C-alpha cells in the first residue's frame, strides 16, 4: 500500500495538491550507471511518466505538469534528441489508442514550431481528443523554457497593445498570465525534482512564485508512486502563507 494511504488520520483527510509539476531528471545518469546508452534512460523515464500520471489521476490530483524537453536540450547530441522525439511519437500513438479508456487529457506547453510536421500532426490529434474529456490533465512541457515563455507572452501583449486591443498601463499579473503557455491552468502547488539536483533549470519561472519544492536523490527512472507519496506528505507538512503571517 502506498505511503500516501498509510498516513496518519489527520494527513489522510487532506487532499493531494491540485497541481503537481515534475522536472523529470536523471534519465541519462540512470542509464550510464547501468552501462546502457542514454537513450535507454529516456525510454525508462517515459514509462515512469505513464505510471506517475495514472497514479496522480487515481489519487485526485487535477493537473500534472512535466518537463520533457527544454529549449536548451537541443544542444544535446543529434542521436539523443532524435531518440527523445521518437519516444514522444511512440507515446502519443499509444496515448491516442488509450485516451478514451484512461480519460487522461494531454496538453503541450512550449514553442512547438520547431517540431517535425509528423509530431505536430500527432499533437493536433491528441489535442482534439483531449477536448472531449473533463478531469485530470497532464501537461507536457516540450521545447519549453521559463524565460522563453515570458518573452513570448510579452511579445504577444505588445502586439495587442500596438493593435489598440490592450492598454499597457492597465496590465495586471492575472492579465499577463493569459498570455503564457499555461493560460487557464492553475499555478503548481508542488514542484518535484528527482536526481539530486537542487535548481529549477528554467522551469515554470512565472508560475512557481509560491510553489513548494521537493528534492530527492532518486533518479527519475527509479521514481515510484511511493516516492510521490513522500513528496505529498512533505508538502502537507509545509506552512504555506503566500506572503502573509
Automatic annotation (TrEMBL):
Give the note describing cofactor binding and stoichiometry: Binds 2 magnesium ions per subunit.
Q: Where does Mg(2+) bind?
A: 25, 212
Q: Which InterPro entries match?
A: UPP_synth-like, UPP_synth-like_CS, UPP_synth-like_sf
Enzyme Commission code(s) on record: 2.5.1.-
Q: Which Gene3D superfamilies match?
A: Decaprenyl diphosphate synthase-like (3.40.1180.10)
Enzyme class (EC, first level): transferase
Q: How does it assemble?
A: Homodimer.
Name the record gives this protein: Isoprenyl transferase
- Which source organism does the UniProt entry give? Candidatus Avoscillospira stercoripullorum
Quick one: which gene encodes this?
A: uppS
